[in-house]
Structures are given as structure tokens and as C-alpha cells.
Specification:
It is built from 5 helices and 10 strands; from the N terminus they run H-H-H-H-E-E-E-E-E-E-E-E-E-H-E. The chain has helices spanning 2-38, 42-51, 54-66, 68-74, 199-208; strands spanning 98-100, 110-115, 120-125, 128-134, 147-150, 153-159, 166-172, 179-182, 195-197, 214-218.
Length: 230
């Protein structure tokens, strides 16, 4: 009798253990299936990113704007637009004088810099100074503005619609009449905000400048070899 009871108990224990193991196996398979269904494969994830790149497109410009100054400082000089040559000028740099020499200079971006304090203009192509001249500029009643101005209009035989005076080889900088143009450059003379340059210098600049080229006007910031023009 005791042996029968022991046998029944053992059988019951084995049955319960078998049922428990079976339940665990079923639960494990169910969780595995659920995990497989909820986690996308590597291919599926790549397809989602490729099909929906808008998030990165929206974030990238913000980060670039925020870090623009830092990035410029970290770039090596070879990757910046830097001054690679300053024209050698042995003659007196006086009103009415100019120099232009673009022989052997490679094609590249044209940037014009104007320093009101030094009363001078420089033209750089691909970082090489190809032209320099003494200028006249705005008087106290209408000073020449400083800043960065894209050339918005070119007119070879322009006549001012405000003052009626000729402005040969005019390169417009602002909508209120400020421009670079040929002028009779003399000591002590001023303009109504425009930047006056010698006639032949104006012609050379007019022939090379394109709409959108930048003119950087400062008051006391001259550039030297290796300086970056940003």
C-alpha cells in the first residue's frame, strides 16, 4: 500500500513538472515571436531612414548655423578663402593711382574689399590680389555704408537717376544708390555714398565682376598674407 502511494506521488510530481516545463516552453516561444514582430530587421530600419530623410534635413541646417563660427576657426588655412598674394606696389599710392595685374592668376571666386580708413579698394581672384586703387567715398552727409554687399546690377554707361551725373562701369551695391563706379578720384573729394575709382580700374573690374560677387566694405580692416576672407 505504501509502495502504491509513493508511486502515485512520484507520478503526480513528474506530471506537474512536465506540465510546468511545457508551459515555460510555450511562453518562451510566444515571447520570441513577439520580439521578432516588434523589432525591425536591419534592412527594414535602413529602409525607414532612407524613405524618411526629412528629420535629418531639418536638423542639419540648424546645427550648421549654430557652429558656423567654430567650424571656420577649425578649418585649415588651405580650406579657407585666404589671401595668397598682395600686389607689389612701388609707386606712391596716391589719389588717381591704380594697379591691375591678373597675369597667370587662376580662375576663381572674385571678392572685392574696400577699406574706408585706408581709402583703398582691392580685388581678389581665387585669393590673389589682382587690382588695387585709391578711392573716393561718402561724405559726412551721406557716408558709405559698411558691410557685405552682393553686386546686384551692372551698367556700363549708367547715369544717376538721383543726381543726373554719369556713373561709368557702375556696379550696384544697395537699392538706395550706393555703387562702385568710375570717378575723378582726387584728394579731398567725396561722394554721396558711392565708391569712386579710376576709369581704367573701373573698366577692368566691370569686365571681371559678376552679379552676386561680394563687396566687403570695412572701416580700418586691411588684409595681409594668409588672412582669411570670410
Amino acid at each position: 500500500m505504501v509502495e502504491k502511494i509513493a508511486y502515485r506521488v512520484s507520478a503526480s510530481v513528474l506530471l506537474i513538472a512536465a506540465l510546468a516545463i511545457g508551459a515555460m516552453l510555450v511562453m518562451g516561444l510566444t515571447r520570441a515571436d513577439a520580439g521578432t514582430a516588434s523589432a525591425p530587421t536591419e534592412t527594414a530600419a535602413n529602409e525607414i531612414v532612407a524613405a524618411d530623410p526629412v528629420v535629418e534635413d531639418e536638423l542639419a541646417p540648424q546645427s550648421l548655423v549654430a557652429d558656423a563660427g567654430d567650424l571656420a576657426d577649425k578649418l585649415p588655412l588651405s580650406d579657407k578663402f585666404v589671401v595668397k598674394r598682395i600686389l607689389q606696389i612701388d609707386e606712391p599710392f596716391v589719389h588717381g593711382y591704380y594697379k591691375w595685374d591678373d597675369e597667370g592668376v587662376p580662375e576663381g571666386e572674385l571678392v572685392v574689399t574696400v577699406d574706408l580708413q585706408a581709402e583703398s579698394i582691392s580685388v581678389f581672384r581665387a585669393g590673389y590680389e589682382i587690382g588695387a586703387a585709391v578711392i573716393t567715398f561718402g561724405d559726412s552727409e551721406k557716408p558709405t555704408p559698411t558691410g557685405v554687399f552682393p553686386i546686384s546690377q551692372k551698367s556700363k554707361d549708367h547715369v544717376s537717376n538721383i543726381y543726373g551725373s554719369p556713373m561709368p562701369y557702375m556696379l550696384r551695391l544697395t537699392n538706395d544708390g550706393v555703387a562702385i563706379h568710375a570717378s575723378d578720384v582726387k584728394w579731398g573729394w567725396g561722394t554721396r555714398g558711392c565708391i569712386g575709382v579710376p576709369l581704367e580700374f573701373a573698366r577692368h573690374l566691370f569686365e571681371q565682376a559678376k552679379l552676386g560677387d561680394r563687396v566687403i566694405v570695412t572701416n580700418g580692416k586691411m588684409l595681409n598674407m594668409g588672412d582669411a576672407i570670410l
